[in-house]
Amino acid sequence: MELTQLEYFLKVARMEHLTRAAESLSITQPALSHSILKLEAELGVPLFERKGRNLKINRYGMMFSKHVEMILQEVERGKKEIEEHSNPESGVIHLAYLNILGVDLIPKLIREYQLLNPAITFELSQGDKGAILNQVEEGYSDLMITSEQPVNETYEWVPMLSLPLYLVVSNEHRLADQASVHLGEITGEPFVGLKHNCSLKNSLLARVHHENFTLAATYDAEDLQTVAGFVAAGLGVSVLPRTAGLNLEGIKWIPIAEEGWRWEVGLHLNKERFLSPATARFVAFIKEKAGL
Fold first, then answer.
1. Which of 41, 143, 211, 273 has the fewest CB atoms within 10 Å, i.e. the most exposed one?
2. Could you say which residues form the signal peptide (predicted)?
3. Domain boundaries defined on the chain
């Protein structure tokens, strides 16, 4: 049973005349007649009483037409909903992002975009890197803003933000008054680290190995805000980007003397996935901001 068969049936049921119904549908009368006969054969009952080209819907046809009307109405509602969600002027953008980015970057980005596109809405989800990657891979989100570049070639990376990383210590720490610090100076210090679901962890470990010094990991926190809280309490030192949500009282931010210690944030998207016109337009906006 095909959707066009149902549309043809409903048109004939309303007009009760094959020729006029065929003209209204812009098809030939034999083609319409064949479609109705095929539908009746599939259902196993006649839907009309025939008198030449005039047809009168019977009780089976009346019974069936009620359901067909509901089906076609639902199809139209579905088409309209898809159109509304994908419309570049008024659609919905499904975006996932790291928790820490919800304090500053994401609200500002959405506000800037909606000032230019006031009818656009966002469906947002946030979490650690594993949670938001799962959102994208499962298709619940089309885009992800994160701090870890993709290693898979099916994903595209659009840089958005680059911030310096700092050594963070408590106000009472012995290094608190330093203008800058070489990270070798914190060898053996209690270090507040990150669990595997934080994207900064892998980058930090790779840099530590390259610089040839060791960290005495004391605590592994779930997110950057918790790291900042532990440092402020004097429970260890850490390395963090100086971003909104982390500027707690009791913390000193010390520039790192070694070059290259930066925190990169960017848009992560699957190049093989269909993007609605609304989403594609948002991606173009981010690329334009990045100068790409």
1. 41
2. none
3. 3-86, 92-155+269-289, 160-264
| Dihedral sign of CA atoms 95, 100, 103, 106 in order | negative
Place of tokens 């870890």: 148
Q: 290 is written with which tokens?
A: 């990045």
What phi and psi, each to the nearest 5 degrees, are found at residue 108? -65, -40
The tens digit of pLDDT for each residue in 234-280 reads 999 988 988 888 888 899 999 999 888 888 999 998 888 888 889 99
Other beta carbons within 10 angstroms of residue 77's beta carbon come to 10
Q: How far apart are the first and last CA of the chain?
A: 49
What is the pTM assigned to this prediction? 0.70
What class, spelled out in words, does domain 160-264 have in CATH?
A: alpha beta
Same fold, 3-86 and 160-264: no
**CATH 3.40.190.10 holds for 92-155+269-289:** yes
Give the dihedral of Cα atoms 64, 67, 72, 77; nearest 10 deg.
170
pLDDT tens, 205-220? 666 666 666 667 778 8
Nearest alpha-carbon partner for 143 in 267, 285, 281, 17: 267
CA dihedral 115, 118, 120, 122 (to 10 degrees): 60
Torsion sign across C-alpha atoms 291, 240, 168, 247: positive
Nearest to 186 by CA among 199, 174, 196: 174
Beta-strand ranges (E) seen in the chain are 48-51, 54-57, 92-98, 121-127, 143-146, 155-170, 190-194, 216-221, 238-241, 251-255, 262-270
